[in-house]
Structure prediction request, 637 residues.
Amino acid sequence: MKNVRVTLLATRLLKTMLACLLLGAGSSFAGQVPDVTNPAVVEAFVDGVVKPNMKQHHSPSGVVAVMKNGELIFSKGYGFIDVEKRIPVDPTTSLFRPGSISKLFTWVSVMQLVEQGKLNLDTDVNQYLRTFEVKDTWPGDPVTLRDIMTHTAGFEDGAIGYLIIDDLDRIIPLAEALAKYQPERVNPPGVHTAYSNWATALAGLMVSNVSGEGFNQYVQKNIFDVLGMTGSSFVEPLPPELDANMAKAYRYQPDKYVEINYEIISNFGPAGALATTAADMTIFARAILDGGEYAGGRILKAETLQQMTDEGFAHDARIRGMGLGFIKRRFGPEGFDNFGHDGGTTVFVSHFGLSRSEDFMLYSSFSGPGAGPTHGAFVQAFYDEFFPREVPAIEPPADFGDRAAKYAGKFNAWRSSFNGVEAIIRALGGVDVVPLPDNTLMIGATRYVEVEKNLFRDVDSYDRIAFQEDENGNITGMAQDGLGVNQYFRAPFYETMSFTSTMGGLSLLVFLGVFLRLGYQWRTFRELAGPEKNAQRASIAVATLNILFLIVLGITVSGGIQPLMYEIPTLFKVGLILPLLALIATGYQLYMTVQIWRDGLLAGVWARIRYSIVCAAGLFFVWFFYYWNLLGFNYYS
Prediction:
């Protein structure tokens, strides 16, 4: 047994040395790019990034596939689809959830019906709906499929409590779900990009309506069966023969993985319900790169696929935006022209990238709490390694300081809820743009240099951001190269984290001061009578109700985003009574504030000032609850 262990150790050491040599052979020589067609070189690199990141961040399973010139160069599974049974990932048979990569199958379905003359990209979508209509918020500006495919339909976003669920009993028909959860149109179509799962699912419903068959069945018949994708399905729960090979969903608690339920996206299935194998995604990629045909089966005409990348929408011609469904990515050198889609559920994070000029595909998917970090570490690194782009040094314009201030501020995403309780996420996020003394802009955590009017490049990479301005030259928004699904708008000061935290923190201190003073002067409070005691009671009620709601909110978010995606907790639903009570209490306190100043109540001017400060804090929270949709029950059950 000892000799066997020594032999195995030597074999592992030899493999490691060989991998390092192969990896080094591709990158150590100046100007030489690693050979992406060499399986050993690719494996050495992928192993070197994926394995340590999966281990460090607790990702139980992952898969990577690389195709070049129509040939599968590399395909490998990492970890286990079943941790307890130690069943390893098989890239040929193991299924993962690619999330929004599912949308590409919806867009292909739409374009199939466009080819047949059954759908029109520029027709009011209400012509294809039967049981409900998209609201006519902008008369004369109806939503079209072109708007939906470029994510410029103008819908607000939403997800908490209903987009992804984990209970089969909550599945309802697609048309019913879309009618029930229809978001508001916050922008006219064709003006701003804001990613919309609801709109994509609506496109899937149109496919179903005009084809006369369920969306899942349509995709199975017209894409999966045509291409021979035998390991793919939109059906939830999965058919037993596929479920046996599905990578299980896990959360991680100290020292072990705990299995959780299969995520259900059926209510918005066309937006993200796909389960598939790396092998099937490779087939799909070959069909797209080969003009819509694979092994004698055709899903689209070549000119239609070309249309899907040539047409689309961008906020600035100098950055890559949206195709018709495909996201135009910034990976690789000029001419590489990467396009595809990424996807994420609460468990899986995936990438699907294509290049026609290189006849290339990269597909990856990782699961568990480490899915995001592993995805983030791997995808960009892979393109930088095998398709590097020269990043010349750049000096900021000497006069940039004269105009830097026009860009400063907080920018929030149009992909946001504006009418639901989850709008509060916008107050806690956003991107800060700060001019620096060296004539650069700090956008988020990255320094950018002006290269043209309203166009900036990352100091250390080829990432670019374009700002938009109005007719008066005021900056109104910004968009990032290769992230055409979302635009940012310049946020008013009251939507910023600094305003929210400062005013909220000061108000909270005021409320805590009410209790400290009550404890210190309890006997005095007990001796009060009439209007003065009522005034103090109002002050105590305002402080109590607001603090109680903050506690409820804290408990609600303490469990993380995943359980909130599945269902809004009952505690939070009940807790929304507190802002309504706080409104009543603050209204009464405002009335009493007028009383105490008019009648000279309380122990002097300073006491009345203190009381007025408490009232002001209560009024801030009334505004806060109202503005962020916490005043009432503004959520989908």
In short: Residues 128 and 569 are 36 Å apart (CA to CA). The first helix runs from residue 2 to 27. The chain has three domains: 95-355, 400-494, 496-627. The first strand starts at residue 61 and ends at 68.
